[in-house]
Specification:
Catalyzes the formation of putrescine from agmatine. With 291 residues, the chain is an alpha/beta fold. 32% of the residues lie in helices and 18% in strands. It has a single domain, classed as Ureohydrolase domain (Arginase, Chain A). The protein is globular and about 45 Å long.
Length: 291
């Protein structure tokens, strides 16, 4: 229903277990229908998989090896091209199934709107859900040019669903004045510009909480990640994003799933963006599971 059963393409490195045997299920969400600048992120999931072949299976940061995990890469979802509403419904249905089956979901985007149905499904499973959102953009708009389904809206939708006080954004350096006013007045947490240090201060307050982690690759400065649809100068380094991932991994939060979105290979001529993204995915899987 959700995937091409005949798919025989590249899998993420060592993601070779069957669905039934896996604890982690990786899936691609190849949707970029609502982007406001440069399209192409629907090709991101496969390029991240291709880049993973250059990774070591061992993380020197975490002293863990991918052979310690049971990962199933389901491939990309068969989403109806151009139909954002139907695509989001299908993603929500898939995540309902993954959570019901006790799987740890690892999503590859795609534009950032694909995170919204994941949050909806997670909220049905975990009543005390909090979100850690790492991004260059606030994503707090209610609509974009009249469209309520936009990659600039998923965090605002999540605030409305979960309560703004349960949403924690880091690295934000772009948005409308009204978005920053909403963040200030609503009770959500927003750290502008930086990620690792403010995150480390917040994590103890989330101890014991069920947390979903969503990372937009454009939180990185374009020098580190040019391959994205809405690049924003003044971002963090790959080293700082790794530090943030490892801080979450070493904390007492219960991560229930994660995603990485907005890799757009057509702008990634040196492949540095997809190479970095594949490493972040490896570190999240090794760090967020098996505690």
């Amino acid at each position: 229903m959700f995937f091409d059963e005949g798919y025989s393409g590249r899998k993420f490195i060592m993601a070779d277990k069957s669905y039934d045997d896996a604890e982690i299920v990786m899936y691609g969400m190849p949707m970029d229908y609502t982007v406001s600048f440069r399209p192409g992120s629907r090709f991101g999931p496969n390029r991240i998989r291709e880049a993973s072949i250059g990774l070591e299976e061992y993380s020197v940061y975490l002293d863990r090896h991918l052979e310690e995990l049971r990962v199933h890469d389901a491939g990309d979802m068969m989403l109806p091209f151009g139909n954002a509403g139907r695509s989001l419904d299908m993603i929500e249905q898939l995540l309902d199934q993954l959570f019901a089956d006790g799987k740890f979901p690892v999503g590859l985007g795609g534009e950032h709107l694909v995170t919204w149905p994941v949050i909806k499904a997670a909220h049905k499973k975990y009543n005390d859900l909090a979100i850690i959102h790492i991004d260059a953009h606030a994503d707090l708009r209610e609509e974009y040019e009249g469209e309520v389904l936009s990659h600039s809206t998923p965090v605002r939708k999540s605030c409305d669903l979960l309560g703004a006080e349960n949403v924690y954004s880091f690295g934000i350096r772009s948005g409308m004045r009204e978005e920053f006013q909403f963040a200030k007045e609503s009770g959500m947490h927003m750290s502008k510009f930086e990620v690792a240090e403010p995150l480390k201060k917040i994590l103890p307050t989330l101890a014991g909480r069920n947390v979903y982690v969503t990372i937009d690759i454009d939180v990185l400065d374009p020098a580190y990640a040019p391959g994205t649809g809405t690049a924003e100068a003044g971002g963090i380094s790959s080293k700082e994003l790794l530090e943030a991932i490892h801080a979450i991994a070493g904390s007492d939060v219960n991560v229930i799933g994660c995603d990485l979105v907005e890799v757009a290979p057509v702008y990634d001529h040196s492949e540095k963006t997809s190479i970095a993204a594949s490493k972040f995915i490896r570190e999240m899987m090794l760090g967020f599971t098996g505690k």
